[in-house]
Amino acid sequence: MEVMDIDPERIATLNDRPVQKGSWVLYWMQQSQRAHDNPALETAIFHANRLNLTVRVVFILTDRYPEANLRHYRFMLEGLAQTRGELARRRIGMQVIKGDDPQAALAPLLKKTALLVCDVGYTRHQRTWRRAVSQSCPCSALAVEGDVVVPVAVTSPKAEYAARTIRPKIHRHLEHFLVPCPRYRPEYPSDENSWQSLDLADIDGIIEGLDLDHSVPAASVLFKGGPAEARKRLQDFISHRLARYTRNRNQPQTDDISHMSLYLHFGQISPVALALSIRNASTGDPEDRDAYLEELIVRRELAVNFVYYTKDYDQYTCLPAWAQKSLSEHAADKRPIVYDRQTLEAGRTHDPYWNAAMAEMCATGFMHNYMRMYWGKKVLEWSPSPQEAYDTLLFLNNRYFIDGRDPNSFAGVGWVFGLHDRAWFQRDIFGKVRYMAASGLERKCDIQAYVKKVAALSRMADRSMS
């Protein structure tokens, strides 16, 4: 009997029920929204071949996804449309069902399912959904982890303090897990003609039928969703910008970054495939490749570790004790200026650099990471209290970034307040939490060129909506 080539440490059994007699193996796709380099999909294909069954892929579309708005849905649906086409070319049908409760939406399909396979999500609601479905599922249910390089539980059994503590734990397992995903050919093609599914060829029609927040427009002027778009951007980055990554990654006036965080958030590209592409690239020095892989693997998986092991990952209480204590001691310090949330959201502060960062986020759904740090630190400085600053940052982050509501985002907001960082010199307002100043931007990058770049992007966005 053929042995599956997917590492068993990527696979978790979610209940104690056996494989049952059924008509298909069901892959419930949620996090890994792609048809290639997807361990959950390949696991489903392998077992379907072994059971002489077809694979049925289903995606549950809910308009009650926490904090998601039109911007997020447009990008995701663009990706799902591409994924459905790529699955069809592999002779696999995909069904998109609207439903607010995945357990109820899947129940009719599970009656005829021999084996349920799902991918792995790390946020609170993702884990709750999978737990509820697997507990009510009449057949065996497997979860396959394909959106980190090293599985979270393999890396560490607890929340790690910082990159320096998780780095050696990841590197201990890195070569074992940094291998291409196997690809299986379905022996029995699935027929989706009889399935009731939302029509991904009509994204506008789907959006019209959803109860969404339309106050944040789509950001398609610069970014379009989809695995094919992700692969195109990756190849462009490797060919033209990877060789400048170390030199320019903290230069926001340039575009020498990959923009992969958007596609990783929706599972439209595999972090393993991405890491292998960078490691095997013929462009760039080893320093460029290593610097990128540090961000992709160590820093990103530190964020996943944080969300997975921290129940209050989206609350001020998630911050390390030293940071909470230091910020509390300086909570009453006089602020040189205070802005309310509405003023910040409108980008109407006295700081042209901060306003440009806010404009980039509003216009494109993205902000250069170096500016994200400065953007966050200034909200802390300009808010009446650290708690209010945290709440405002998380609100703006999740509302405007295409890759908001992501472990990287929750950890990134936390970092502004000391998470995964160390204590620095004592100062007003910040206490021992790291500080950033406009003079640092002026010294370390061409910040005026960044402001001009964002102004051009904003004009482009305005024209696209007019």
Secondary structure tally, helices: 20
Based on the structure given, which CATH architecture of the largest domain is correct? Orthogonal Bundle
The profile of the biggest β sheet is:
6 strands, mixed
Q: What value does the Rg take, in angstroms?
A: 23 Å
Overall tally of structural domains: 3
Global outline? globular
Widest β-sheet, arrangement of strands: 1-6-5-2-3-4
Order of helices and strands: EEHEHEHEHEHHHHHHHHHHHHHHHH
Q: What share of residues is helical?
A: 40-55%
- What is the CATH C-level name of the largest domain? Mainly Alpha
What is the CATH third-level topology name of the largest domain? Answer: DNA Cyclobutane Dipyrimidine Photolyase, subunit A, domain 3
Mean pLDDT: 96
Number of DSSP strands? 6
Strand % is 5-15%
Report, as a whole number of angstroms, the end-to-end distance: 61 Å
CATH-assigned homologous superfamily of the largest domain: DNA Cyclobutane Dipyrimidine Photolyase, subunit A, domain 3
Which structural class best describes the helix and strand composition? alpha/beta
Unreliable segments (pLDDT under 50, ≥5 consecutive)? none
Describe this entry's structure for a reader.
Helix content is 49%, strand content 7%. By secondary structure, it is of the alpha/beta class. The protein folds into three domains: 1-146, Rossmann fold; 148-182 and 226-309, Serine Threonine Protein Phosphatase 5, Tetratricopeptide repeat (Alpha Horseshoe); 316-465, DNA Cyclobutane Dipyrimidine Photolyase, subunit A, domain 3 (Orthogonal Bundle). Strands 1-6-5-2-3-4 form a six-stranded mixed beta sheet, sandwiched between helices. The termini are far apart. The relative contact order is 0.12. The mean pLDDT is 96.
